[in-house]
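Target protein
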Amino acid sequence: MTIEKGQTKSTGMHLLIGVSLISLLAGVGVSEVIEHSSPHGGSVQAAEVKSPAGVQSLPDFAALAKKLGPAVVNVATTQMRKTAQQGPSPFGDDDSLDQFWQRFFGGRLPRGPQQRQKGLGSGFIIDRDGTIVTNYHVVDDAEKITVTLSDGRSFDGKVLGKDQKTDIAVIKISAPQDLPTAPLGDSDRLEVGEWVMAIGNPFGLDHTVTSGIVSAKGRHIGAGPYDDFIQTDASINPGNSGGPLINLRGEVIGINTAIFSGSGGNIGIGFAIPTNLVKELLPQLKDKGKVVRGFVGVTIQKVTPDLADSLGMKQAGGALVADVNKGGPADRAGIKTGDVIVEFDRKEIKDSGDLPLQVARTAPGKTVQIKVLRNSKEMTLPLAVGEVKETKEIVTSAEGNLGLTVQPVTPEIAESLGLDKTEGIVITAVEPGSPGDDAGLQQGDVISAINQRPVRTVSDYERAISEAGKDKSLLFLVKRGQGSLFLALKR
C-alpha cells in the first residue's frame, strides 16, 4: 500500500489528488433544517427533506455545492520534468526502491531528457482580490499557472508563497471584479463521524462534488515532520489536490492532499491538511513568500512502554529528550537529556510527533512554558523559541559527479528524522539516473561511513570520496529509518 500525492502520466497530464467518497445509506443522517454559512455573509438554509415515518433524511449537499462551488478553481500548470523511464524497472525483481519513488513522487522513475509537461489540480478562493489556496505539489516548479473559474474564465496565476513541508501554496490572479470566496472554518471543532463534502477536478472533470465522513483526526502518514492530517472515507482522485474539504456549516476545514492506495485509485482512505494549520501560515506565505519556523534545539524520541516504566511514568507519552543542542533555546531554558516534555505552550504533548508540529507553529522569539518530567517530578520552564536557520547544501561534483546533494545533520533535521544525535551527513536530493541513484541511495539517508571510514563532517565526506579515486567503487553505510544498510556506488 502506498501514500499517493500526485502522479505524472505518460500522456503528459500531471494529475494530482484530492478527497471524497459518497457513501449514502438508507436510515443514516439527521432530519433537520441545516444552517450553512455563506462566503458572502449571512447563512444559507438547506431545505429539509421529508422522509417517511421512522426514516431519517441525509444532509442536503445541494445548497453547499451551489454556494461554494463558484469559489473552487481549476489549477493547470506547465513545467519542465524528466521523462519517465521506459521498459522494466532498473531495480529488477526487488522493486522496493521503485515503490519508494512512486510512493513519494508519483509515476515511474524519471530517466530520459527533460520535456514540457502539463499538470492539473484544484484550489479555492479565500479573498475577493483573487487570493487562492492550493497544494505545494500542484504548483511546484511550474513555469506557467492557469486558473480557470467555474464560469469558464481563465487567468494567469502567480505564486505568492509556498511551503513544501506542509504542502501548502498561495497563488494570486488579477480578476476584473469581486470573486466568490470560501470561508476557512475551525478544523479543531471537527469530530470523527461528521459529514464532509469535497469539490475538485478529478481527472479534469471540473467541479466534481463528492461527500463522505471524517474517519479520524491527527493522522501521521510519513509525509514529513508536521504530519497532522484529517482522514476521510472520501474518494480522492488525481486532479482533486488543493481542493476544499467542507463541513455542513459551509466552511472549508481541510485541503484535500493525499490518498492511501495500492493501485493509485481510491479505496476510501484519504487525507486533508487541517485549515487551522493553513490559517497560521497564510500571513507569512502572503507577506514573505515562505514560512519561518520556531526552533527549540533538542533531539527527541518516542516514549515506549518499556521506557515509560524505566522512567517511572504511569503510562507512555510525551517526547523524551535524547540530546540538547549546546547553546540552543532548550539548553538556555535548562532542559536536560532524559527529560520528558509533556506540555508545550499549554498544549499537551501526547506523542513525540506532536512536539515538532507545535514548535513549528510557534513564532520565533515567543517565550513559552514547557512542562517536563524529570526524575518522576513535574517542572515548568520558560523557553524563548529560536528560529530555524537554513543550512547550505553541498553538491558532490569535484571528483566525479555522484548525483548527491548533502548537508550536515542539524538539530532540527535530527528531530524530524527521529535521530538520537546530530552527527553525520544527510542526503537531501538524489539526481535521477546518477551513480547515487543507481546505487539505491535515497533522500533522507544519513551517511554513517564511506569505505568503512566514519563520516561525521562535510570534510570527512569529501575526503572519503577524493581518496577513493575516480575508478574505485564506494561502499556507503547509511542509516535509513530505524535500521542501517550498506550500498555500493559505482562511478
User: Anything to note?
Assistant: DSSP finds ten helices and 33 strands in the chain. The first helix runs from residue 61 to 68. The chain has three domains: 1-87+94-291, 294-387, 394-489.
